[in-house]
Amino acid sequence: MRGRLKLCATLLCLLWGVCLGRFVVEKNSLKVTSPESLKDTYECAIGNFGVPQYGGAIAGTVVYPGANQQSCFNFDDFNVSFRQPLGWLPAFALVDRRDCLFVLKTWNAQVAGAAAVLVADDMDEPLITMDTPMEGGVEVPYLPNITIPSVLITRSLADNIKTALSRGERVNINLDWTEALPHPDSRVEYEFWTNSNDECGQKCSSQLEFIKEFRGAAQALERGGYTQFTPHYLTWYCPQDYLSTKQCQSQCVNGGRYCVPDPDLNISDGYEGRDVVIENLRQICFHKVANESGKPWLWWDYVTDFTIRCPMREKRYNKECAHITIQSLGIDPKKIDECMGDPQADADNPVLKAQQDAQIGSGSRGDVTMLPTLLINNRQYRGKLGRRAVLKAICAGFQETTEPAICLTEEIQTNECLENNGGCWQDKAANITACKDTFRGRKCECPVVQGVQFLGDGYTHCEAFTSLSCEINNGDCWKGSKDGNTYSACLAHPSNHTKACVCPQGFVGDGIHSCQDVDECKEKLACQCPDCKCKNTWGGFKCGCASKQIYVPQVDSCIGSAVEAKSSWTLIGVLLVALGAAALTGYAVYKYRFRRFMDAEIRSIMAQYMPLNSQADI
C-alpha cells in the first residue's frame, strides 16, 4: 500500500510540476531611485503569472496599504485604492507574503489599480519563484485576467522600504526586465515543453489554448527565418520495484522507461497514461519529419487540428484519427510511424530518451520540472502563457535593431521615434532621420539611404559619406534650375569619400546657400575679339560673329565668311583624301617589296640544308 501511495505521489508530482530538480529562479532588476538612503540596484524573483515586461522597464512609486496588507481580500472593502492622480508615477503595491495565494494577492492589487506588485518575503531566505496554484486541482478563474507584473523581494529590502514610507519618504523604483532574457543575435531559439493530454484541467487547457492562439505568430516568425522552435514533452520512468504494477503498465511504454500520469488520474477507466505517451511521441516525430521536409511550422497545425478533431471526450484520441489529421497536412503517416519505433519493445526509444536527456538543465538553465515550460534563448520564461505576453518575450530575445516587423507593431511596443523624433538627428527637407525604432526603445544611428552611408553621432549630426554623397538632398549644397538647365554646387571626391559645396563654373557664391550667375560678357571674360558678339546665358554665355563669319572658340576669333569658310573646309577635305590615298599606295608597295625580300632570304637559308626544286640534282 505504501508503495502505491509513493507511486501516486510521483504521478501527481509530474502532473502538477512540483517534482524536485535543479530549479533556477529567474530574476529581474529592481532599482531604487529615491530616497537617497535606499538608492541601489536589487534582485527580485519574477512571478510565473501576469505579464512581465520583458525587454522593457517601468517606473513607479511604492504604496504599502494601511489595511489588507496581505492583499487577500478585495481592497474596496477597506476603502483602499492604488490609482494615482493624473501625471503621477503609477503605484506599485507592496504586500506581505502569507495567508493566501500569490495570484490572489496580485489580482486584488490589480483590481485596486496597482501597476505592479511587490510581494515582501516573510522570512530570510534565497528568493523563490511565485507560481500558480497546482495543489489539489485548484481552479483560479481570474488567473488569465492578471495583466500586471509581480515580483518577490527579500525581507530585508521590504523592511527598509516600509521604514522609509513610515518616515513619510517617497520610495520610487524602476522594475527592469531589459536583461532578463539573453538577446545575442538576430535569431531567437525557443522551446515549449507541453503535453497532448486534454483532460488534466486548467493546466492542460491553458497549454492547448496557447498553441491555438500563438500558431499564426509562431509560423510567421519561423517562415521568415527569425526563430527556431522546438517542441518537447515531459516524461518520467517507473521505479524498478513497481514495473509489474498496474500503475506502471498502464502509464508507461518501452518497459517502464517512459511514463505519463493517467489523464484523469483514474487508472481503471478512460484513457491511460501510455496513450498520452504514444501521442506525445507521435507529435515529436511529426515535428521531426516536417522539419526534414523544410516545413517545421506544420507542427502548430497538427497539434491544433488534433486537439479539435481527436479529443478524449469524444473517444477519438487514437492512431486512426491522428493519421487522418497527418495526411490532411500533406505528411506521410508511414514516416511518422517509422520515427516512433516500437513502444511495446523492452528497449530504449531514441526519440523519447532524447526528451528525457533534454529535461536536465545545464549552465544557467535549470531542469524542466513543470508543465508547461517555455524556454527562450535557453532561459525559462516566467509569466502568463498568452500570445501577446509570449510574443513580447520572444521579441526581447532579438539583438536590438534586428527585430522582425511583428515586434514593432503598436500591439507589442510603442514607437518612440514618433515623439520629437526620439531626440535624434533628422533632415526634415529630405525626410531622413537617425531614429531607429526598436522593441526595447529607440536608437539614434546615422542611416543608410539609397546606398549612401551617413556618419555622425546620430543625435546632433549625420552627414553622407560616400561617392554618392551628392545624391541625398544634393549633399546639403546649393542647386538651381532655369531655362531647362540644372546646376549643382555639390562636388563628390570618390578617392577619399568626401564632398564639398563649390559653385560650378559660371557661378559665384558660398556653394551652400546661393550661387549667382556670372555675366561673362559684362565682365569681359569671353568673346573679346573685335568682331565677336557676346550674349550672356544663365550659367554660361554664347559667342557669335558678324554676318558671313564664324566663331572659333579655341582662339576666340572670327574667321572668313560663311561661304569662304565652307570652301576652305572643302579644299582641306580634298587634300586630306588625296594624302590618304597616297599613303595607302605607298604602304602597299612597301608590303610587296618587303615580302619579296623575305622570301629570298628564307630560300637562301633553307638551301644550305636541303636541295630545292630550283637546284640541279647532285
TrEMBL record:
GO terms for cellular component: clathrin-coated vesicle membrane; Golgi membrane. GO terms for molecular function: calcium ion binding. Belongs to the VSR (BP-80) family. Keywords: Calcium, Cytoplasmic vesicle, Disulfide bond, EGF-like domain, Glycoprotein, Golgi apparatus, Membrane, Protein transport, Repeat, Signal, Transmembrane, Transmembrane helix, Transport. The chain crosses the membrane at residues 569-590. CDD domains: EGF_CA. It is a single-pass type I membrane protein. The keyword Signal applies. It comes from the Eukaryota. It is found in: Cytoplasmic vesicle, Clathrin-coated vesicle membrane; Golgi apparatus membrane; Prevacuolar compartment membrane. Residues 517-559 form the EGF-like calcium-binding domain. PANTHER family: PROTEASE-ASSOCIATED DOMAIN-CONTAINING PROTEIN (PTHR22702), PROTEASE-ASSOCIATED DOMAIN-CONTAINING PROTEIN 1 (PTHR22702:SF1). Pfam families: cEGF, PA, VSR_TRX. This is EGF-like calcium-binding domain-containing protein. Residues 1-21 form the signal peptide. GO terms for biological process: protein targeting to vacuole. The lineage of its organism: Eukaryota, Viridiplantae, Streptophyta, Embryophyta, Tracheophyta.
